[in-house]
Amino acid sequence: MLWIQRDVYKTLRTVSAVTLAALMMAVAGCHPHDVAVGDTHSNQSSVASSGVQRADVMVGVVGLADATTDKLLLDAYAGQGLKASYVSTRDTDDPNQTAQQGVKDLVDRVVSAIVIVGLDATVDEQGWNEALQKARDGGIPVILVEPLHAPSDERLYAATFTIRDGSINAAALDKGTMSVINDASHSRQITISASS
Questions:
Q1: Lower CB density within 10 Å: C or N end of the chain?
Q2: If DSSP codes are grouped into helix, strand and coil, which group holds residue 19?
Q3: Which residues, given as ranges, of the chain have pLDDT below 50?
């Protein structure tokens, strides 16, 4: 009787290990193969988001530009009904390293999207590639707002936003962000309005 219990226990352990391995492989494959997370729909990939409800959205904003732009975005998200978490790089010894760590921390928090303001990917290119790859591996879309230089690997970000308040062609910030989060058809370069 004891040997039967041992066999059942070994079988259960094996099934648990196989199930865990399958789950880990699924998580490791969170990003589409040849396109950016959040930009698969426009490329007619077979990978598509099932949609995230606005009430469940948390946008991570990483500020590398002036605080005025950061505040404008944060106020617009609040006014348009999207929650946002902010990573400031002001008054730090190495703003790029602080921002890169901020991206990694936001990935660990599993935000809906990461918005980086004023990115210059030519400054510490390897560090940026690693941070943005972590977001990609985590299945989190990255939006660049007014980037100075975007990464050369376009799979690391879904779209760039240019702020043009008052432009008749500008999409509302929340709508542009939700189109990326929900992988709806969108341009890679989006003109947005941050007026709330």
A1: N
A2: helix
A3: 2-3, 8-9, 12, 15, 17-29, 42-49
Handedness of CA 107, 109, 111, 115 (dihedral sign): negative
- Beta-carbon contacts of 187 under 8 Å, excluding residues fewer than 6 positions away, are 42, 159
What 105-108 contacts at long range (C-beta under 8 Å, 24+ apart), as own/partner pairs, is 106/60, 106/62, 106/135, 106/140, 107/134, 107/135, 107/138, 107/140
pLDDT in tens, 12-57: 455 454 444 444 444 444 555 565 666 655 444 444 445 778 889 9
* CA–CA dist 144, 164 (Å, integer): 15
For the domain made up of 34-193, the CATH class stated in words is alpha beta
